[in-house]
Every structure is written in C-alpha cells, then in structure tokens.
Recover the amino acids of this structure.
C-alpha cells in the first residue's frame, strides 16, 4: 500500500497545462523586432517561416526537421550584416503567451545560403553549416534554462560571412525524454535574411549537411541514456558526463580559421558557442528580458526538472514504480 499512500501527493506534480511546447514568437535583429505567426493560425507578413503546430519534431529522419513542423515560406526578408546581433524569442503555449517550457538540452544555430530570395527558396535539399552551439552554462544548468525564464536565444552573424540571402535555422533540442531512442524533441525554426557586407567566409564541404540527414537518433547528444531517476531528486545525469553536440562542428570560418566554397557532407563533433551579448526582444504576446548566452564547457550536470506534461506524468509513474519495488 506504500505506492497508493503517495498518490495524493503526486497530484501536486501535475502541470496546469498540457501545452508544454512552443515556437519562435519574434526575432530581433540589431534592435528591430519582427513578429512571427501563431502556429496553424492566420498568416501575416513575417520573416519567420510559419509552422503548423507547437508540437516538437520527433525522429531525426522527419522532413520537418528542416524548418519546423510543416513549415511554409514567409513573405518577408530582413536585412542584416556581418556581426549583426540576433535575439530569437522562443515562447511557450499554443499562442505564445507563456515562457519556453523546457530547460535541458542544447541551443544551436545553422545557416544556409538561398539560391535567390529566401521568401521563395525551397530548403528541402539545402546544405546547412553550424555557426553556434550552446550546451552547459554552468556545472548544473544549461543555456536553454535562460529561455525557460523568458530570455531570448542569442546568436551573432559571422563577421566575415560572404554577402547574400540566407536562412538562419534556430534549433532547441529538449532532452528530458532522450533516455530512449527517438525520445529527443526537436524544435527548429527558420528566419529569412539578406546579409550585406563584403566578406568572403563560407563553410568547407566537410562542414555542411542536410536536414534531415545531419543527425541520427542513436548518436551522442540525441540519445542520452545515462539518466537515472531518484524519487527525491528526480532526474540527474550520472556524473561525470560530457555532452557531445550533434551534427557537424561549427564552421571554421566563423572563428576565422577557414574560408572556402560550400559543398555536401555531414559529420559530428563537440564545440562551444560563438560569443555572447545582451539585449531584449518581444515574443508573441510576452516580453522577454535581456539575453544571457555565451560559450559552454561540457561537464557533469544535474538535469533540472522540466515543465512538459509528459515529463510530469513520467515522473509520477516512475516514483510509483520505485516505491512499489521497494515493498518487495
């Protein structure tokens, strides 16, 4: 009866909402804010490609891994420059009126050059290169936790990038269910840009890949089975742990180490984010506070409780199971 005795307590762990997913509600480029559209809602002019639902992409072979769930072309393109500071306002809920609900997993940014205006560019076979990856901010928190308190994701356009039309792909991966193959939740979003300047930086062929194709469901960083459950602490990584970023490494030219034409290819590797800055951005019905991002260092980490509905439910059953087995 021990397990049954704790059932009343477990109801306090239930979330108040099951809409524990989200999307990009706004993007701020050098201080100018561009609003996105509600997923599946009315389509208004925007630089952010609209998705059909706030649900995550599940599985590394899903075509929606490209730009988000059933993403459609956006009508507008924003001007940017090498070195432009971009704040990506990730918000929660079906209308974006709550904060981002997850706090465990990496934030990564990719770019691909459009063949013509990005407002008409089909990115299905695009070749993407990584410009930033952020994992652990401290020994016990992830950069993604900043989104969970209302801050935007922050990325800098490479200072030496060659001019042209580009898609910026902002991606958050929630790892709270990644203890099983296929459990990772992918949240990609694509932003249409036209970048000026006179730079010559471009990725090498070994630094680009396609979505889907950049990841697989069993690679490190996507499948993280080294999570244990404690009925008091709940989720913790078994230390020591080193997080490996999925996909290709950050393109060499981003840090000034190379510049060459792009090509096809894929890979995997570890690395750090490409800098930090601060600012503010509005995000589809909710204001966000100054950004706080930067480079990360892999290390041991405690996984903070996640707010998603299925995570709470999973915890409930895990705790019940723990106490049931303890009786035997």
């Amino acid at each position: 009866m021990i397990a049954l005795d704790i059932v009343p307590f477990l109801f306090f762990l239930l979330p108040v909402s099951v809409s524990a997913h989200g999307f990009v509600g706004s993007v701020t480029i050098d201080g100018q804010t561009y609003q996105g559209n509600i997923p599946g809602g009315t389509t208004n002019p925007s630089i952010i490609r609209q998705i059909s639902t706030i649900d995550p992409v599940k599985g590394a072979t899903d075509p929606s891994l490209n730009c988000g769930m059933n993403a459609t072309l956006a009508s507008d393109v924003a001007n940017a420059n090498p070195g432009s500071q971009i704040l990506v306002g990730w918000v929660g809920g079906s209308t974006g009126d709550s904060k981002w609900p997850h706090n465990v997993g990496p934030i990564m940014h990719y770019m691909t050059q459009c063949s013509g205006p990005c407002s008409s560019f089909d990115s299905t076979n695009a070749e993407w290169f990584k410009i930033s990856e952020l994992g652990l901010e401290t020994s016990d928190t992830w950069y993604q936790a900043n989104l969970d308190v209302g801050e935007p994701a922050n990325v800098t356009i490479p200072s030496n990038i060659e001019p042209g039309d580009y898609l910026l792909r902002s991606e958050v991966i929630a790892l709270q269910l990644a203890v099983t193959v296929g459990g990772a939740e992918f949240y990609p979003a694509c932003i249409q840009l036209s970048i000026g300047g006179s730079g010559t930086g471009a990725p090498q062929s070994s630094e680009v890949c396609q979505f889907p194709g950049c990841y697989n469901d069993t690679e490190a960083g996507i499948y993280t089975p080294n999570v244990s459950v404690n009925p008091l602490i709940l989720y913790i990584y078994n230390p020591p742990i080193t997080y490996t970023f999925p996909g290709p490494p950050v393109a060499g030219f981003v840090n000034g180490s190379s510049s060459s034409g792009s090509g096809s290819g894929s890979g995997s590797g570890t690395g750090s984010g490409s800098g930090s800055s601060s600012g503010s951005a509005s995000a589809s019905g909710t204001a966000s506070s100054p950004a706080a991002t930067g480079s990360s260092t892999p290390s041991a980490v405690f996984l903070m409780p996640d707010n998603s509905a299925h995570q709470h439910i999973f915890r409930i059953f895990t705790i019940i199971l723990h106490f049931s087995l303890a009786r035997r």
